[in-house]
């Protein structure tokens, strides 16, 4: 009436991640050129270098007067104001001894001038004469190329662009850049118990909550979800859904069908794959989380259990999606200090969904809501996950635990 | 030849933020109904409550057999297997004494049954008979309403939805929700020195780098940028650009024109506003960052200096955009430990752009690139900002400093 549980080789979280690292090159992302204006949070695929020195002209650091340092040997010095250089203006001739020009912050320092005296330390003694009384310590001029020389790397390959990078591209008028294509994802949620939105609730059936969650998790982590399918626990339907997607996406994520019952349709697919990465983890929840490569596509089989699906996504799928894009996981690993004793023990490492806060210079972590993995009540509220190490000891308050701060929370 | 510097009343970062808090109600966001599928990272404007108990039926926590506890008084107990309840299936009659049904994780527990015995602790002694030998500690049944009762709050007003919340809405088939509209932003960058993309570089002119940065900062912080304009330092042009935007956006951000020179066109606008919030801050860079309310619209005047613009955006604009949406800033404030001595001192608090990392359970912070505020070289790389307190003392290595971890970096 039921198949015996497969003999599966359980491995640790770190071993599973190492296997992902070792196999990530199976899923290489190609590159594309895009407009810099659309580049925020895309990943640079080729170094962007400075097309010219920056600044391109000698620039005043302050509002004040540009002049020659040699005119300031004997103070007070009175200088003839021969012009005015507002921001954006050029000046038509070199400055000579005895002359000063009014200049704005960022303004063009004319040839000949080698110092800008701050406005606040000057005074006009008549309408055309400025007097300097203080000894000047700095020239207040940013030289050509002070910030970047032509050919300097502005944004290195494999950098995720943020608005700071956008400002850099804009400053050099770099209008197009080469980036990695976004990973394309197909999501297949399996389960004969799953209703479609709008259907009537009946005994035994539930609405699909993991599928929409996975879809938004993929999107916010930089992937393009190109297909989303909900099927029954039926090997033929799975095969057909998978065949529809092969060659069209970089990653296929299935949800459900990875448990130990009669309908382990993902396990069967994994068995026929060219490379099983893992199908049993020494962790709870989600010990049956599965990953394999099938027809050149990276598959993740997440548990249908909400808590396990959530945990499996952040620990393995997010990790892989970022690796594919030459990035580290955005789940920032750190050490949290537990705010209350935790008494449950397990032979596997237990990953709890929690919240964190900064208290002084420490990161305090604590549980949020129930830890039943079927319970949806803390997926919204969890801002971190942390690890209760396997073993028979109770985990005491103030234990320092491996913690992952979750992104976009 | 130039106007004297205005007498401006400098206030601290915290005082400025307090003023923003006190005036944020001037900019109330209205609400709109949107599809739950489009709700990730939107802010709930009305409590979402459970339309029914959850689970809606008694649910099995494991693969196994459902039966009556009263049949397990004397062990071993042999029970007749009268059926099979895969995921998603109903069962047509109550179970009675002596009977068991095979059930999957998440399956419907039939009336009459009051325990699910895990598959691993059972054995089939013939094709129709299952034998239980172990004493059972738990019933492994999730009762109707165990996770949520009808009317329970699923997502409270003012919650930012994340994929966990999407899963919750999906589980209850909530297809539409009420959210705050995104703040609408108009950006006006001012500066006669600014070139447009594609223009030829000439002495005195630069490409606009702050405008594109502000645009992407607004977008990634949940705002809709509905207008982006670049104008010269010209009060009439500013007036016209502002008039075009009034009534069309919640916030107008200007960049440039806030320094102490001849062309303080933003200061003039601020002077004519109904409410000046601040126009001088005890901080560097960005001491001239200005905020005011003009014709019912919240204005921020950021410095044209890249470092000051960046700092001003995160400390005040991001702060206000999040407040308008009933949220705390995503710049997470914490205490960082400085990785090297900092010798510059200032009468104002200095905000440095830096990077952080978790070292043990501490947050180590350090400078990145140069701190010249005109230098663009660290805006991309900065992942945090930290405060060098005002005063005459050198800031020693290992100083514990007020730090903001920057979002989306």
From TrEMBL, chains A, B:
It comes from the Bacteria. It catalyses: adenylyl-molybdopterin + molybdate = Mo-molybdopterin + AMP + H(+). GO terms for molecular function: metal ion binding; molybdopterin molybdotransferase activity. It holds the Pfam family MoCF_biosynth. Coiled coil: none annotated. Gene3D superfamilies: MoaB/Mog-like domain, MoeA, C-terminal, domain IV, Molybdopterin biosynthesis moea protein, domain 2, Molybdopterin biosynthesis moea protein, domain 3. Keywords: Magnesium, Metal-binding, Molybdenum, Molybdenum cofactor biosynthesis, Transferase. Its cofactor is Mg(2+). Pathway: Cofactor biosynthesis; molybdopterin biosynthesis. PANTHER family: GEPHYRIN (PTHR10192:SF5), MOLYBDOPTERIN BIOSYNTHESIS PROTEIN (PTHR10192). NCBIfam families: molyb_syn. Catalyzes the insertion of molybdate into adenylated molybdopterin with the concomitant release of AMP. This is Molybdopterin molybdenumtransferase. It comes from Companilactobacillus nodensis DSM 19682 = JCM 14932 = NBRC 107160.
């Amino acid at each position: 009436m039921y198949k015996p549980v497969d003999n599966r080789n359980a491995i640790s979280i770190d071993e599973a991640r190492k296997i992902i690292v070792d196999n990530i090159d199976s899923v290489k992302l190609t590159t594309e050129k895009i407009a810099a204006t659309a580049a925020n949070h895309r990943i640079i695929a080729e170094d962007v270098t400075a097309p010219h020195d920056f600044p391109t002209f000698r620039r005043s650091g302050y509002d004040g007067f540009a002049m020659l340092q040699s005119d300031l040997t004997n103070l007070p010095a009175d200088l003839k104001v021969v012009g005015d250089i507002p921001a954006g203006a050029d000046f038509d001739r070199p400055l000579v001894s005895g002359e000063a020009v009014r200049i704005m912050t960022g303004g063009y320092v004319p040839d000949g001038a080698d110092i800008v005296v701050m406005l606040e330390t000057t005074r006009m003694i008549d309408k055309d004469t400025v007097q300097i009384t203080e000894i000047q310590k700095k020239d207040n001029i940013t030289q050509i190329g002070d910030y970047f020389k032509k050919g300097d790397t502005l944004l290195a390959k494999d950098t995720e662009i943020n608005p700071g990078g956008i400002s850099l591209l804009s400053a050099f008028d770099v209008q197009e850049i080469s980036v990695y294509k976004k990973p394309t994802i197909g999501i297949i949620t399996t389960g004969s118990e799953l209703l479609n939105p709008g259907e009537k609730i009946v005994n035994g059936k539930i609405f699909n909550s993991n599928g929409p969650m996975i879809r938004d998790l993929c999107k916010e982590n930089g992937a393009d979800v190109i297909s989303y399918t909900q099927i029954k626990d039926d090997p033929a339907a799975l095969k057909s859904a998978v065949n529809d997607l092969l060659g069209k996406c970089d990653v296929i994520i299935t949800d459900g069908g990875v448990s130990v019952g009669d309908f382990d349709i993902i396990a069967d697919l994994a068995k026929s794959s060219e490379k099983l990465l893992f199908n049993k983890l020494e962790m709870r929840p989600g010990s049956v989380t599965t990953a394999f490569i099938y027809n050149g596509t990276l598959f993740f089989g997440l548990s249908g259990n909400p808590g396990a699906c959530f945990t499996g996504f952040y620990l393995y799928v997010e990790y892989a999606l970022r690796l594919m894009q030459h990035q580290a996981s955005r789940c920032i690993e750190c050490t949290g200090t537990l705010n209350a004793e935790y008494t449950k023990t397990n032979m596997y490492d237990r990953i709890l969904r929690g919240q964190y806060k900064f208290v002084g210079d420490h990161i305090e972590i604590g549980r949020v809501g129930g830890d039943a993995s079927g319970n949806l009540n803390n997926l919204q509220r969890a801002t971190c996950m942390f690890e209760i190490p396997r073993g028979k000891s109770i985990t005491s308050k103030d234990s320092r635990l491996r913690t992952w701060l979750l992104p976009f929370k």
